[in-house]
Amino acid sequence: GQAERPGRDVGGIGDMRLGRGQRAGLVEDDGVGLGETLEGVAAIADGIEARLGGAAFCGIPSEAPGAGSATASHLWFRHGGSTAVFAIEQVLKPDAAAVVAALKARGYDCRILSGDREAAVAPVARQLDLPYASGMKPADKIAALRDLAAAGHRVAMVGDGLNDAPALAEAHVSLSPISALDITQAQADAVFLGERLMPVVDAFDIGRRARRLMNQNLAFTVIYNLAAVPLAIFGVVTPLIAAVAMSGSSITVTLNALRARMPEKAPPVQRPAGALPAGTEVSAP
C-alpha cells in the first residue's frame, strides 16, 4: 500500500551550507504529502511532484539511457520535467563465492531473486554460477518463495534491501546483515554482524547440528523410559537404583547436548584472508 503523511517543502535545503543548525522554514501541506511505496518515494512541493525510485515508478521509459557501466543498477530521480539517474555498481562481498560453494556442498539449492534489471543481475549470477530472476517486485519474491514451499521445500532467505523485507517474513527462516535497513532486520529471524557472509554458513551448520543432537536426546529419553519405567513399576529395581538411573539419564542427555560446543568436521570451505569464522536468497531443500 501507500502511506500518506503531511508534506514538507524541501526545496532549497540542498543549497544550504553545511555548518551550524538552521531552521528550514518547512511548510505543512496537508493532503499532498510524502507518499512511500516499496518502489520509491514521491512528494509534492509547490505543486511540482518529485519522485525517487525505479524507472517505471518515476515515469521514465525503460529504454532511457542510464549512466555508468552496462551492469550498473540505476536509481532515478524526476522533478517536474527534469530527470537524473544515479548509477550504482554491483560489487560482490569478498567471500560470496566461497559461501555459495559451501552451501552447495551441504546440499542446498541456491538462487538469486533480485529487483534489479537483468543487465545488472546476470553478471553477478554468472560469477556465482547461480540461477536467477531479475526485475522482481516484493510480491514476486513472495510468490517465488510460496511456490518453493508448495513444492515441499523448506525455504531460507538472506536479504538486506527494503523490497526483501516482505519475503524475509514469508520464508521459513531468514537472515539479514547488520548493515541492512532497520525494517529489513526486523523481519529477519536472525541478524549477523560484520561485512562478510560466512556467518550464514555457520548458522546453517549450527542449526542442523543442534537439531540432530536434539533428536538423539529425545530418542534416548523415550527408549530409557520405555525400558526403565516398567522395571520400576513391577519392583524389579529398587527405588534407589531407579533414582540413580534417572540421574544418569539426565547427565547423559546434558553431556550429549554439550557436544554442540565441540568442533565438527564440515565440507571444506575456502575462506578469504581475514574472514570471520563463520544477497543472494537461498532456498533449502
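^ that was protein a. below is b, sequence first then the C-alpha cells
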Amino acid sequence: MSNRYGWPIPCSAPRSPDPVQPLLSASGLASAPRYPMSIMVYFPDRGRDRVPDAYWALRQHKQPVAIIGAGVAGLTAARLLSPRIPTVLYDAAASVGGRLATRRCDGHAFDHGAQFFKPRHPRFAAEVRRLVDQGVVAPWIARFAEFRGGTIASRRQWTSESAHYVGIGGMGALAASWATGLDLRLSRRVTGLRSALDGTWLTLDSDGEQGPFGLVILALPAPGAHALLPADCPLRSVTARARMKSCYALMLGLDGDLDLGFDAALVKDAPLSWISVTGSRPGHQGPSGIVALAANAWADANRDRPPADIQAALLAALSDLCERPFHASVTTLHHWPSANSDPVRADGPQIDPDHRIALCGDWLRQGRVEAAFLSGAQIADTIIAAMVTKG
C-alpha cells in the first residue's frame, strides 16, 4: 500500500500528527547496508509540490545532500550516504573532527577535545574493531586516578579488557581517517538556509548561495542548528530544548619527561574536571605535556572573564591538585562553548520534510563520541530507508 506520491505506508500505521517524526515500522539503526522491505518511512502529506519532489529527487540521485558540520555525527552520516547519494560536507573550520581534535603548537600535540571513547553499542563496537585492525585507534593503557576534595581518592590501571580508545597519534587522526574520500568544503561557514520548490539553498559567508540540495542535515551543536533553522520549522522545538555546557581546555607543553603519578585523572568538586598527560597516549610524538579541562559549571560561571584570567585560574587549580608548579614552554587555552549537554533524548530521527532539513548530533542522545556516531548513522539510515521501494 502506498500514498498518492508512491511512499509506502505500513497498513497498520496511523498518520502521524507530528510533522517532525516519520513513522518507522523497524529501527533505523540496522548495522548492515541492506534494509528489509518492512523498513519504510511515511511523511505526512502536506502538498504535492513540496514534500514528494524533494524525496523523489534523492531517490533518483538528482539532488545531493548537504551536511553542515564535519564532527563525528556529520562524518558518519556522510560516510554512509555518499556511496548511495551525492553528499557534500561543509564545515567552518579548516579541518574535520569538531571536538575530535588535536592541536599542534611548537612541536607539541594536544588532544584538547574528546579525551577517549568506549564502545557500548554493537554497531559502534564493530566500527572500533575495524579501526583497531587498520591501526587508526588503540586502547589507552593509562594509570587512572580520581580526585575528591583536592586529594587522590582512588587509583586503578586501565586495561584492554574494558578499553578506553584514542586515535593513534592524536584524536584528529581518527577524524581524518573517517573523512577520507568525502566531498569536503572546509573553511566554509553557512550563515543561512532558504527553502524553495527546487530544493534547499545554503548561504555561505564567502561564496554566496549554493544548491539546490534535496536535503540538508545540520550536524551541529544545538545553538548553531537553531540559528540556521527557518522560523516556521518544527525542528526548532527540539533545538530549543537543548542546554549546552561550555568547557575550557588548558594546554601546557613541557620540556623533558613528566610523571605525575597518573596518566589520566577525573577531578570532582574543583574548577577542573579532567587531567591528561599527553605523553602517555598511544602514538604520541614530541615532548610531553598536560591537557586540563575545566568543569562545565565552572566554565559556564566564568565564561565572561578575560581568557588570560581563565588561563591563570586553571593553571593555579592544576598546580594545587598536583602539589607542584608547572613551568611550561607552551601555554595555550581553548574555549568550547558547546562542549556537551544534558541529552534532549528526542525520539526517532529528526527530519522536517517540508523544509528538507534534518538534525543529528550527540546532544540528541548523550555527550559521547559513540552517541554522535549513532546519531549520524541513524539519520543516514532513515534517508536510505526512505529511498527503498518494493520491487
